[in-house]
Every structure is written in structure tokens, then in C-alpha cells.
Amino acid sequence: MSDSKNLWGGRFTGEADRGFVDFNRSFGFDRRLFAADVRASVAHCNGLASAGVLTDEEATKIIRGLQTILDRGLADAGYFDNLEFEDVHSFVESRLVELIGDTGRKLHTGRSRNDQVATDLRLWLRDAVDDLVLNVSSPQEALLDLAESHLSAVLPGYTHLQRAQPILFAHWCLAYFEMLARDRERLANCRKRVNVLPLGSAALAGTSYPIDRESVARELGFDSVSRNSIDAVSDRDFCVEFVSAGSLIMVHLSRLAEDIIIYSTAEFGFFELSDAVATGSSLMPQKKNPDSMELVRGKAGRVFGHGTSLLTMLKGLPLAYNKDMQEDKEAVFDSFDTVSTCLGVTATVLRNLSINKERARDAASTGYMNATELADYLVRKGIPFREAHETVGRIVVHAIRRGLELQELSVEEMRSLSASIEDDVFEGLSLERTLGTKSQIGGTSPERVTDALAVARKSLLI
Ligand code: ARG
Which pTM was predicted? Predict the structure, then answer.
């Protein structure tokens, strides 16, 4: 490696080992920080000029040079190719010196790559968080559209994957909507701690030049400046928070994927995936496989893995900066890419999902899912709930033996097990009634769900 390509040649007389040079290099992935690096360099240059460290002329020359580099980099991906730079910071600085000569060598006054990389990563991540918040809203919107266009659809609700109580399909949609709503809040919360300026911390002890950090922060849109220089260059808790928020998004998408996968089987048959997001089998002509949802479920593990990598990388590090921390970027970048793609694919799956309303209604009307209603009926007749529960259990056993649903038994049969049962029992056992009684906040009654949909829709506009 020639001295012009690294930033620390003076101390060295020996040649670097080729294998180590490659091993040490991060330019292959940290080039994603290019625009952030240039932006932060411009702000640093302005800081140096205001502090009187650079003349206005020098600063203007540097800033023009940086702007040219940015324009070229954004216009031509080839600008980065086949160049053996150690990292994005040495790349930008070398390009600057190449372009404007020795003045470019003054830019690094009063900063270190340690505060530079922390600043770049925070700038990048702030935009990534904003993007992701928008991306989360696309499956949310798809869920609302799906719910609103199938307002009368029902599903069997499960606990332990055993039929439990009927629910509105829209209520199921809203459950996932809520999870994603919290995910958005978590991202917004994480953004607050991302949006703090480390620049001015220099290597670890703070800068010795009179740079007005507050004004640099304002220029870069940071809410505040870091309060401790050692902490600012050495923690990556904001990366962990980001990947954690991403991991929870993946947990939610993965559970949604799992529901969609099983509900699309012949055994359940409530949903059918569009051909646009399914695949066939190379051997079995009849197959339609939900690969899209399986990949979303599968990719969750990879984001969790990044979280574990980051935590493990950080836990034993002595203060302050250590090169281990270069590992932060791929974890963050890949988490962002994976979560974004999975959000997009999930939205597409939802937008194209068919609901087999008849089959779902049949399933929701059978399997004794109105047994709780019958117990509640007995409670209304003055029987203590515990006793009612026991009695209905016996009625269910009787019905199973007879191969009938509760509403298919005669009043006499039911009365033989509980004298409190009268002719009015059947009204309480219908699917409509079962749904309609769940009318408190958060319940699955049609009125509640209609209100909840309106509230959800409104929340997306904020
Ligand atoms: N590529 C490095 C990283 O990602 C940049 C910071 C290097 N600093 C240093 N003192 N070697 O962390």
C-alpha cells in the first residue's frame, strides 16, 4: 500500500503484509457512509474556519472540493471501484488532496477518524431510521386496506393453536397493526439517542482547537452534542438499539408470516397467496409454496444474529476506540437492508392476499367456540361462573359424543344437564352474538373493530 492511500504512514518504515491490509480494510462496506462523511467534513471545515484555524479562502477551497467529490461519487458508482483505500475516510481525504492539493491536508486538523466514523454512522443511521419508519407504515397500510375490504370476514381465534373463540378477520389484521405501531415508536425513540454529535471529541480526549461544537451540530441537524469525549468515540449502544428495534420488527413480521403460512395450507385454507409471491415445486406440479413468507420468517434470525454480534463485540472492550468496532457497520447495514426488504415483501404479500371467507366462517362457527357464550348465558341466569364452566364442559362432552355443535342440540338435551337452560339459549350461541358481546375497548365486536380501524387509519397520517 502506498503512503498516499493511508493516513498514518509517517511512523512506519516497513511494508504492510498484503493479507493484513485486506483484512484491515473497511472500504468495501463503509463506502456506504460516503455522503455522510463528506457532509460531516464540510461541517468540520466550517467549524475550523469559524475557529480561525483555516482561512476563509482555504475553507472555501476545501468545501468546493468536497462538493465536487460528492457530486462525482453520487453520479458514478465506478468512482469507488478498484481503489485500495483503507476506509471511506481515507478515500475522501485522498480524493480531496488529489483535487485541490496541499490545502486538503489541513481538513483533518482537530479531528480523528474515531469521532469522524461515529459522526458518519450516526448521520447515516438517522436517515436509515427515518426510512424504516416509513417502510413500517407500508405493511400497516396494507393491513388496514385488507381489513376494510373484508369487514364481515371472520376467523377462528386460536390459543395453543386450538380453536378458542371466533374473531373478526379485521381484528386479526389490527393485532399486527398494533405491533408495527409500537415498532415505529421504538424507532422514533432510538432516533433521539442517535441524533447526538460526537465530532469534536477527536481521538478520545476532546479537540484542542476552539471549534464551536454546538454550531457544527446545528449545521448537521443534530439535536445536541455528546457530553463526554471518551464515551462519544467508544460506545455503539445506538447501533444495538437500532438492531434491537429491527429485531422486534422481524419478530412481528415473522409471526405474521407464520400465520399466513399456516392459514394458506389445505388444512386451514383461510388464505391464498397470490402467484406473484409464491413459487412452485420442481418435482410436484400441484405445489404452491409460500417462499416469500418463509424467507421473511427465516431472515429474522439473521437480524437477531447482528444484535448478538454487536453486544458481544462491545462487551469486553476497554475504553476508548478499538478496531473491533469496525465490525459495527456491516451489522447495522445488513440489519437495515434485511428489515427494509422484509417490510416491503410483507406489504406485497398482504396487498395480494385472497381470503376464503366461507371456509373461514365455517371454521369459526364450529369446534365449540361458543362454549364460553353458553357459560356466560348461565351466569346471566344467576349461576356462578365456576359452576357454569363445569356444566358447559359436560354439555360439550355430550355434544362431541353426539357429533353435533352446541347450537344443534335440543333444549331438552341441554336442560337434562342444566335446568337453568331455556328456549332463549340459542340466541346467545350464534356467531354474530358471540362476536357482538366482545364490545369493550380492544374487543372483537364489529362496532369496536370499526372504531379501532378508524383510529388506526388516523394514526398513520401523523
Ligand atoms: N474503519 C474504522 C472503523 O470503522 C474507522 C476508524 C478508524 N480509527 C482508527 N483509529 N483506526 O471503525
Answer: 0.94
